[in-house]
Amino acid sequence: MVTEVVRESWRLFLARFWRTLIVVALLLAPLELALALLDPGLSRGSGGWWLWILISSAITLIAFPWIIGAIVHDVATGDRTPTQPYAQTRERLPDLVVSAVVTSFGIGLGLIAFVVPGLILLARWALIVPLIVLERAPWRVALARSNVLVRGRTAAVLAIFLLLTLIGLALVAIPVAVGYFLLGGVIGAWLATMAINTAFIAFYSFAPFVLYQKLTGERLQSEPHCGVV
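^ that's the sequence the OP posted. Answer follows.
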């Protein structure tokens, strides 16, 4: 399963790179530019510091879940325009945000406490976004259903995300070096951050989508089919 999901995620990354870049940039580019302009190293001790904290929190808790949800919807349904994935997932935003807060807290607490519980939760909750976006499941239902679908495959799911993380790190090495060391300044930091976020948002959207398709398909095949005789 690991090789299959990683290969398909990589295929989607290549095939949908420019489309994904546009969808991500629509929401994230202006926010990341604002963060770069409000560099806390330049704004420390002023109102800019608190504005930086506010925008950074908004990106983490609202923008990222919405973008990942939009990418999942886009690859699943083939939305016509780059703005349509956001319009189609707008109603799911509260569940996406709440799930992001709950899972971040749970995984973070697990990592701080014993590491392993946090990794287990990371894998078990891997399908939350596809379940919320594609099945329109409330966040509590999505957490429970994701746990059930991934159970027995936790190690494989962790391996998938580890491999994609390593691939992502290799991909962004050059853009980050160019941004921070060649260009420098606000533009360099902005471009480097956009490269990092685009690569990892893509992988962390495509992998859960591919897993969702595979695991829900397996679950349907394993369920007994009842008919009327």
